[in-house]
Amino acid sequence: MRTEKEIMELILSIAKTDERIRAVRIDGSRANPNAPKDNYQDYDISFFVTDVKSFLLDKSWISKFGDTLIIQEPDWNDNCTRWYSSEPHDFEKSYGWLMLFDDGNRIDLGIISLNEKQFFEASGEPTITLIDKDGLLPTYPIPSDAVYWVKKPDDSIYYACCNDFWWCLNNVAKGIARDELPYAMEMLNHYVRDMLNHMIEWYIGVKTDFSVSVGKMGKYFKRYLPVNLYKQYCDTYSNSNYDNIWVSIYSMCDLFHDLAIQLADSLGFIYRQHEEDGIRKYLEMVRSNTTK
Q1: pTM for the structure as a whole
Q2: What is the pLDDT of residue 67?
Q3: How far apart are CA 20 and CA 76, in angstroms?
C-alpha cells in the first residue's frame, strides 16, 4: 500500500503540473486532528479548476492516480437514477470521482469550477488548503472536529425522540405478525434504531460535556460507552429469525429506557413513562398472538 506521503505527493504533483487546476484542498478525516488514523481513511480532495468540462471530455487523466479496482462517479449516477435530487446535475459546475485503488487506498476527488464561489467557503468540517496558485481560497480555521460534536437536545427534541422510538415499534410488531420481514427489519433498524442512536449520542454528550464526536452512524460508540452498555447495544442487532428479532426489540427497549431516564435526570427533562408502558403492552399483545 502506498503511504500517505506518497499519495499526497502524487496529488500535489498532478495539481502542480496541470494549469487548469488552480487550487487544492483536503477535507474529512485526514484533515481532522481527532480522527483515528489508519490505512482505510479516504483522501477527500477538491480541485478548483478553470474548466470542469475539459476533465470530462477525456477521463484518461484519472489513471495518473494509479490502477483502480472500482470507480464511482456519483454525479453521473444521480443523473441516471435521480435518487438524491429531482434536478439534473450541472456537469460544468462540479464533478466527482470516488476511486478505490488496487493497493487499498481510496481517493474521493471533486473538481469544482472557479466560478462556483460558494464552494470556496469552509463548510465547518476540518479543511486544509494544500495548493492555492492564485490566492483564491479563504483562510480556513485551524482544523477541528467541533462541527461534528454531539449537540445538546432541548426538551422538545428529547420528547420527540422518545415518542418516535416507542411509536415506531408498533410497526415492527405488525411486520412480524404479518410475516413481512423486510418491512419489520427496515422499521426496526432504520426508524427505531435512529432514535436509539440519538439517545446514545446524548448520553455520551452528557458524559463528555458535549465536546466529542461519535462519528458517522455512531462508529465511535465503542470508544465512549462503558463496556456493559456497548454489550447491550450489540445485543440489539439480530438475524432474520423472528424469535431473535423479539430479543433484539426488548434489548432496544431496555437500553433506550435506561438511557432516556438518565438523560432526563441529567438535563431536567420529563420522561413520559406511560408511552413506554403503552407500547410494551402492545408488543406483548402482538407477540402472544403470533407465538400461539
Answers
A1: 0.84
A2: 96
A3: 22
